[in-house]
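Appendix B. Extra example for self-study. Work through it before the problem class; the solution is given directly after the inputs so you can check yourself.
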Amino acid sequence: MRRKTKATSIDIAHRAGVSQATVSRVLSGSPLVNAETRKRVEAVARELNYKVDRHASSLRTQRSATLALLLFEDPTADESHINPFFHAMLGSITRACARHGQDLLVSFQQLSDDWHADYEDSMKADGMILLGYGDYLEYRDKLQSLVEQGTRFVRWGAVMPGQPGVSIGCDNHAGGRLVGEHLLALGRRRIAFLGDASSHYPEFFERYRGCDAALQAAGLAMDPALQVDAESSEEAGDAAARTLLARGQGFDAVFAASDLIAVGAMRALAEAGLQVPADVSVVGFDDIPMARFTRPPLTTVAQDTTRAGELLVETLLRQVRGEPAESTLLPVTLVVRRSCGAGQ
Amino acid sequence: MRRKTKATSIDIAHRAGVSQATVSRVLSGSPLVNAETRKRVEAVARELNYKVDRHASSLRTQRSATLALLLFEDPTADESHINPFFHAMLGSITRACARHGQDLLVSFQQLSDDWHADYEDSMKADGMILLGYGDYLEYRDKLQSLVEQGTRFVRWGAVMPGQPGVSIGCDNHAGGRLVGEHLLALGRRRIAFLGDASSHYPEFFERYRGCDAALQAAGLAMDPALQVDAESSEEAGDAAARTLLARGQGFDAVFAASDLIAVGAMRALAEAGLQVPADVSVVGFDDIPMARFTRPPLTTVAQDTTRAGELLVETLLRQVRGEPAESTLLPVTLVVRRSCGAGQ
DNA sequence: CTGAAAGCGCTTACAG
DNA sequence: CTGAAAGCGCTTACAG
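Solution. C-alpha cells for the complete assembly:
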C-alpha cells in the first residue's frame, strides 16, 4: 500500500547475509532456523518494515488465510436495514478471525444471487461463513450444491438433523421454552406469537415450538389464531401486531420472534391504547442493544454472540484443515426486564 | 475453495486450442482478441467454471482489487456495541465495492492499535477506508504518518481545512443549523446539547456550532451550561440527560449529537416525568432505523449513507489509480417526526 | 490478433 | 541448520 518500493525477502536476505529461503523460514516461524540467525533476520525485517507478500505466499501454498463472510438477505427486505443481531455477530466474527490470523472478506448478497460462483474458484477465501435470514427451503438447495462441490462453509442458523453442511446455531427451542415458562409463571395464558412459524423459517419455528412445549407441559397450547407471520423488522412487527389486534382474539402476552419485531409490536400496542406490561406482556429474542432502551425495557432471550463468532470461525478452520467438523447448538439465557411484568 | 482440482488458464487454453496468454487476455477483457476466439475461450471457461486465480493475478499486477475497511473505536467503548449508523455505512460500502469489482476486507481496531502495520506492506489491500469514532486529536498523528508513508486511505469524518489525507463527511454544520432553525421556529429558545463539543470530536462540535449559528442569527446563543459531554451510545445519552437535569438549568429542547444519545436521553427525560415533545423537544442525528420507532418518533438529521459509501470507494479508487482525490462534504436533510413537537 | 517467454515474491522438497 | 532451485498461476512487453 505504499508508493515507495516495498522490501522483499531478497532485500532482507542481502542485508542479513543469509539466503532468501532462510528469510522465508524465519518469517513463517519454521523451527529449522538457528536462534541467532533468526534474531538477525527478524531485526532486519523489522527495520525495513518487511511484511510477507500475501499473494506470493498464497499462490505458493494454495491457502489464502482469508475467510469470507456472506451476509445474505431476503430480496424483499429493505436493503439498508440489517438486523442489529447480525452486526453483533459480525463484530465477534471479525475478532475471532483476527485471533486466528485470518482476514475477513465481507460481502452482502441476495438470496437469489449465485453465491458459490464468486468465491469458489478464485481462491479469494479458504471457506465461507453464511449469515442471514431468508426462506430456508429456498436456499437449502444452494447449501446442498455447495456441499457437493466440496466447498467449505459454516452456516449460522437452526441446527437440525439431515441438513446439508455444518451449522452453528443457538438453542431456539430452549429459548422458546424459557419464554413460555416465564410467561406462565407470571400468570399469562394466551400467548400470541409474532413471526413466521413454519419450516420455511426454522429458527422462528423452533422458538414457537419451544414456547408451545412449555404450554403443553402445563396442559395448555399455543393458539394458531394468535400467530401472525412477520419477518425480522420493526415494520413487520408493527404490522403483525395490528393484524393480531384486528382479529379480536383475546391475548395477554406477545412473544415476538425477534427484538425488532417486539419493538414494532410495542408501538402498535401502545397506539391501540394497551399498556405493557399491565395489559400485555411482551418478550423478544436476540437481546439487541436497543432492548435495554425500549419503554418499558424489553424482556428477551440472549444468544452468546461472542462464543458464536468464535465457534463459527473455529469450525470453518477445522474444515479448511481437513479435520472433521460438526454442527453445534449454543445455550441461550432469558434476560428479564420490565416488559413482561416481572423483574427489575 | 473446492477440493477437486481447480482449472487453470492452461487447461482452458488446451481445450480452446489457443495459448495461455490468449486465455488471460480474454479474461481480463483485453481488446486485442478476435471476437471468435473470445467466444470460444469464454465458452470453455464457463464450462469448466474457471475463475482467474486472484493471488497469481495480484502478484503479477501488484494490485489486489481489494479495499480494507477499518472500523475503529474508542478503547473505552463497549466492544460489542457499534453505532447502527456505521452499519448502514458498512452496507453501502460493501455494495459500492461490489459495483467497482473490489473485494472488501473488514477489520475492527482499537484507536490504540497499530493500523498501518498490518495492511500496509503485505499487499492485502490497495487502500483503506477509515470509519470510527474516537478522539480526533489522538488519531490525527496516525493519519499524518499514513500520509507520509504514501498509504492510500479515505476517512469518514469531519471535513476541515488542513487535515491529513482525504476525508468524506456530511455537512455537520448545516445539519446543526437546520436543527437550530427548526427548534426556533417551534418557539424553543433554551436548547441543550448532549454530546462532546470540542475539537477532540469535530463532527459533534460542528453540529453544535451549526445550531449555535442558527441561534446567533436570531440574536440568541447556545448556553454552555446546557451542554453535556457524551459519546455516541444510549448509556451516555441517558447519563448526560441526568447530568443536565441535575444542573437545574431550564431548557425546552434537547439536541442530541446522535440518535443513540437521543434514545438514552428520552428514557432519562421520561423517568424524570418530562413529556416529549410537550415539555421538551428532542432532536437526534443520523436517522438510524430505530428513530422511526422511538416513542414519540424521533426528529433527526439524515445523512445519505448510500452516496457516502459510493463516494468513499470512488475517492479511494481514484487514489489507487494515482488520480487526484479530494475531500467532499455531503448534504444532509432534516427529517421531522413527532419528538420535536411539529410534524406528523 | 496471437504466441513464447520472463518474472511477480514467495515456500518447500532436495541436497548437503 | 542452510542454500540453490523449482514452481505456484497469472500478465504483459516483445516479436511476428
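Self-check: The first helix of chain B runs from residue 9 to 16. If your reasoning did not lead you there, revisit section 3.
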